## 1
Amino acid sequence: MGNPVYVSYLIDCNWHGFSPLKPSSVFADVGYTVGTPEKTRILEDINTALGLVERSLGGKCNWSILSHPDQRYLLYREPFLDCWREAVRQGGELSLHPHEDIPREGSRIKETGYMRAVLEDLKNVMAREGLSPNSFRSGYFGRNDELPAVLAELGLAVDFSSAPGYKEPSVEADWVGAPPSGGFIRAGDAASYGPGDVDEAGVFMIPLGWDGAGGTFTENYLFNEAAELDTLLSVYAAIRRRAETEGPQFVQYLFHLSAMNEPRFTERVADFVGHLVQNGGVIVTGSEASEVFRKGSRVG
Ligand SMILES: [Zn+2]
């Protein structure tokens, strides 16, 4: 049978046109802009995603909810809160996704005190509505080594920020040398996570699935909108080979809400799931991945 690959699906709940620091992201070429979110379209995209997630993933998905200084609470209010309640009812988990990226200026991810205030506020807004986000994802894979300690304090025990092998200074992303499989983060270094002392920071990193070969989203990662299905399958084959030699793998599969109106993207999510469950893959939420890892590393 071989060692399993634990895959955590993460949907970046963004809106069409959101592109504050990258003028030509892979599925929108709109210039440096926060965009003009259209509630009707966002609702349609969420409903498409909820159907897809329930059908293909049995509800097991991490919903990473965008916030930006220009649209701080847009997705943290009705009618969207009801959607997140439905996501949780299906078996999903919620993730805070503040993109503190200022057009033509840069990312504020490295400002720990600022990031803490944003995260604490978003968490409280959700808590007042009876919702309990349990994870975090940075904007553009930005990295801040002081942040895991903050996440632990705030009860955000899973971090989806790492993209091993990827480096892009313009968005404060640098994960060169980071492990390709998940683990508990060591204090003071967000790119150091592994099977060591699981209690050190108490935050479990689930990196973007990576083939170990390069740092390009269109070629080397489980990034639904960036890579064609064939590429995603060959990345997965590389992860599976790694499972054989190094033990069970814990990785993230990334897709985007703003892509849900394009059938080629929704079909790709479903097609990949079909392949993975036939080939040693196990779909888990962030907290399930963390729990499986914790038991394995204690018992094994
Ligand atoms: Zn994002």
Note: The mean pLDDT is 93.
## 2
Amino acid sequence: MDRGYIYVNKNNLQHNIEYLNNFTSKELCIVVKANAYGHGIDWTVRTAIESGINWFAVAALDEAILVRNLSDDIRILLLSEPSITELEKIATYNVDVTVYSEKFIDAMIISKDSYKIHLKIDTGMHRVGCSPENFDNLYDKITSSKNLSLEGICTHFPVADTDKKQTTASIQMFKNTISKINVDQLRIHADNSASNTYNNDQVFNMARVGLATYGYTISPVKALDGLKRVMEIKTRISNIQNRKKGEAVSYGKAHILEQDSLIATAPIGYGDGYPWNSFPDGKVIVKNNFCKLIGRVTMDQILFDVTGLDVNIDDEVIILGSSSDNSLSITIRDIAAWNKTIEWEILTNIKDNRLNRVEIDI
Ligand SMILES: Cc1ncc(COP(=O)(O)O)c(C=O)c1O
């Protein structure tokens, strides 16, 4: 091993898909934007297709093209309107596109191509989406056009993971907005991983699930304990040194040793997506022991305290995952907490162009 490995576990991904399919009657649309939350978009899509998944959501047209090149038979949903200059590609690559602005819809109507579209309503996120008041106008425009096929209606919740009450109000607003139209042939979708755990309203027949697919339970009301984490990150000890009490290690002299210490180095850093703010709270696992980070995370290396352990160069260092005896673990939630950020940011920053991605099937 040179630097580090990202292990992605096929059995766990397929287990999660089966588990989520058993949990909800909605069809799953797996969210694979940002390199499938760091898991590798190609691997994730191929593995999910084997599990019968037919819908994939992306944020960028380039991601949609990557996914389309893996299969002609699946549906790909672009979650926002791209630039009007990209219209031709949407048609060429047969991408379902989320729409909400009159200008974009008009540009589609006057183009020579046909499009499959999902009309998005803003029910409180206030990021993208048409206002409930403008819904009828856009709906009529779309359904009276010759080249637009309305495939779905959707919304997105701002506090699905923290506030069931507000999310329920958004659901009600959505339902009121679409109450006059016939939704029989449409995909009606709103849920992300969190709201999917409690929104049982029968009008919704598809859920756009990201984080839960990759094994992380997220809900203000119900933990999905049966999910299995798909990703582990491991590296190796690359240097070992004895340092004296009072010496500082790493940049900024941010950590002064309080005692004589054995300090190990591993070749992973913020350039690989292991975040800078992991120090001072962060730790790694070596030989079934937690080892505290010592000194600042650098671009390519971290330092940690192995005082009292019998360690050698090339010994395994667990950055994300469980110890071999399963007694200790470090989760994405832990790393996010050390860094005062969210799980999504940690995952989507992991760089599989610097760390080697290894696909395992056990
Ligand atoms: C529009 C939209 N739908 C669904 C999701 C999936 O969210 P989660 O990863 O919480 O399941 C996202 C994630 O950012 C999103 O932006």
Note: Residues 11 and 362 are 6 Å apart (CA to CA).
## 3
Amino acid sequence: MSKRQVRIGMIGYRFMGKAHSHAYRDLPFYFDLDVEPVMQAIAGRDPEAVRQAAGKMGWKSYETDWRRLLERDDIDLIDIGTPNDTHAEMAIAAAEAGKHIICEKPLAMNAEQAGRMLEAANRAGIVHMICHNYRFVPAIRYAKHLIDSGRLGTIYHMRATYLQDWIMDPKFPLVWRLRKEVCGSGTHGDLMAHSIDLARYLVGELTEVTGMMDTFVKCRPIGEMSGGLNAQVVDDRYGEVDVDDAVAFLGRFANGALGVFEASRFGKGNRNGNRFEINGSKGSVRWDMENMNNLQLYLDDDEKGMQGFRTINCTEEAHPYAGVYWPAGHIIGYEHTFINIMHELMRGIAGNFSPEPNFADGYRNQLVLDAVERSALTKQWVTIPT
Ligand SMILES: NC(=O)c1ccc[n+]([C@@H]2O[C@H](COP(=O)([O-])OP(=O)(O)OC[C@H]3O[C@@H](n4cnc5c(N)ncnc54)[C@H](O)[C@@H]3O)[C@@H](O)[C@H]2O)c1
């Protein structure tokens, strides 16, 4: 019997569009799904570029206005991979059109917008997710299992850093990621949003924060993104950078743990240094995206004299998702995090539920982002609304 189809309409087809397209293509190859994802249409504004992208990435059709995807009755799911200022308008309209949604992070420009997106999704009864793909790294899933099963004991600390260095050249152009009216915040909403998501996933809700933010290069030539994290200067005029280059904050978790967080695009030598360490009463874990298959684990009940951090290569059947790919030791990569999250999305659509992380997580994440920004401005501790 043929499976129910999930016909996808994707908006934005560059960095995340490429990652999502690849995931939809590979998904049925690895997972036995209850539904059949169909790459129905993409939307972009440049007719020739969107036509080429559709052909290259394997989409059946294309539109030059994203609203057309919502009018089409052969689209079931809207995938939003455009800059942050567009998410709320697109997601609310998609929900009102009765389409399921996966939206890139951060969910919105601020918590007020994110709250409206959550309300619209709930009102429409559609399935929704936010693309915090790092939750779907097998090593992180396994860390979650160790924490939830009590192997690390009471959690006291989470220390997370997310460091990149791609904008350190002062001539690197003023792209959308550095303009507040388009991105909402800089490194904060881009990188820190991921660390906050991992903190909420692994340790729990944050209750209060105190933070600081700064911008090291305040003026840049006008430019645009050209794929991945590359960009080109398109104008010899300069414009003001009005978002943070770097951010740090301290936070308290509801369960009593303490959090220390830092994100920067000025961490020279760190290309995608997404890392954390969690310490509990009985053990600790450490993880680093640039070595993503490995989890460092310390357990206090190891024999005295043999104690120490061990490296677990999370590619065994026992590690979430790892078993669907290759034999143990045959590592996976960045793109597999997107295949895994799209698998959860398809499960959600098949079962009519919104898998985590969904818009409720995106909203709670945004409350923390907003609170850190407010704290940086006021130099006060800020309580996160419950
Ligand atoms: N999950 C992750 O790890 C991750 C990584 C990178 C980016 N992101 C998020 O994904 C989103 C997109 O980032 P990106 O890196 O793919 O950006 P990008 O600049 O590479 O691509 C953006 C795409 O959106 C299109 N676009 C812009 N405005 C549009 C509009 N009004 N209508 C239709 N298309 C429009 C552009 O033409 C382009 O195709 C952002 O929200 C970003 O924060 C998430």
Note: Residues 11-17, 43-45, 66, 81-84, 86, 104-105, 131, 133, 190, 225 surround nicotinamide-adenine-dinucleotide (CB under 6 Å).
## 4
Amino acid sequence: MTDEELSIRLASAGDEPTLRALLATGSLFSADLSTARQEYLLVERAGKPVGCIGLERAGESGLLRSFAVAPEHQARGVGTLLFARMLALARERGVRGLYLLTATAERYFLARGFERIDRWAVPAAIASTEEFRGSCCATAACLMLLLEGMEGDSRPRPRGQELTELLKGAT
Ligand SMILES: CC(C)(COP(=O)(O)OP(=O)(O)OC[C@H]1O[C@@H](n2cnc3c(N)ncnc32)[C@H](O)[C@@H]1OP(=O)(O)O)[C@@H](O)C(=O)NCCC(=O)NCCS
């Protein structure tokens, strides 16, 4: 299958069951998932859902969440595409600091510019999100990425021309 068959879009309320199913493939928390309260990007390959990522905004801060690629589609750049498009979306929305909790992919995010921080150091609006308050993530690593001043930097880019072309589209 080729990357021409990949498409990415903002998910709507009707996509919630699909998002939950994707998150279940990665054993990720989805109890509070709501397209009304969070924004999700959904990648489809030949019309079938293969990955998603979510942004929960709280003023100028954002919680990066619900990042999953179906196991049979992993390690082919879908996660990188989702992540890059999510950064663009977060900037568009005026987010200056991105936060996340992860029990499974700390190295993935450290390699993409995030830094580990103490959990108590997050803004109050992030600390009050259900993900931060929930006991499911009590032992997860807390990471942050400042979005300001990232233009022209040398952070990792999506692999391949096809992904680069996809990144040019509007969400
Ligand atoms: C994390 C995840 C979304 C990445 O998606 P993907 O489409 O496989 O990612 P890409 O193809 O863009 O990137 C693959 C690269 O990331 C690395 N990687 C993938 N998962 C990783 C993890 N959990 N920790 C560290 N590195 C990881 C791969 O080794 C690969 O490295 P390489 O480019 O040097 O070969 C996917 O592995 C996944 O759904 N995992 C289960 C759910 C999860 O842990 N989500 C994160 C919760 S916050």
Note: The domain at 3-148 is CATH 3.40.630.30 (Aminopeptidase).
